[in-house]
């Protein structure tokens, strides 16, 4: 009996053939980007790779030279008035009136928010300030804020009302480690509530800790995208086996012409010519005590370096290898 085809993944944002030229210079070149609904997608890339330009085209702030954009199921920028009320965004740093306090800046924004009734505005502002831990500094003028405090206020503006999609361009810029952890907590809360989050960041450790999906841009195009776990596992065809019988295990595998090397608490097995079940069967058959078996994962930093240092690296959206590692 034929199996039914898997249901298509619902997308919060989608681009096809997206291209942007600035006076003959290619900033973004044929970007096909999928942002799955409910995901936390980290957009990574070196400076000048096209991250911010892509985000601006997603939000209708910049008109593409070519290609199409869909945001929450509607074309952009043609139906921006339909999609944007459901989107919170912090792009290229926050812009506020320097002579107003943080609270007054948010009150002005909230007054123009179509999804907020007048009576709900004060409460929404206080909730947003508390969420980014700016309540104590809410009455200080914006001009006196540190860079990190300005970033927090920009994040509060994006969170004035519940959103279906939140887009954050370098949200931890200027934040100390404690502030960075707080932003991580906010992203986790949004994800738990079912909100899709698209975050551009240069902090690979933060992306690895918070994101479910990644898209890596290089020279204006997407060189890899998909589930983070899948991409990391695809980069390392190796198995790590925890066992007290390391030497015995290595010998048993080498007898079967399977490359393996000892580790302090076990061994690493090359899976290029074999499979994980076959390795386990060989070890158990040889009387090796197998305590734990796991696939070796490439760190995001290593994966990012490999993808952006080679112009030929282009795995597909499912993270399958095409000569990229």
UniProtKB/TrEMBL annotation:
- Which keywords does the record carry? ATP-binding, Nucleotide-binding, Transport
Similarity field: Belongs to the ABC transporter superfamily.
Which protein, by its recorded name, is this?
A: ABC-2 type transport system ATP-binding protein
This protein's source sits in the domain of life called Bacteria
What region holds the ABC transporter domain? 13-244
Record Pfam families = ABC_tran
Q: What Gene Ontology molecular-function terms does this entry list?
A: ATP binding; ATP hydrolysis activity
Annotated source species: Labedaea rhizosphaerae
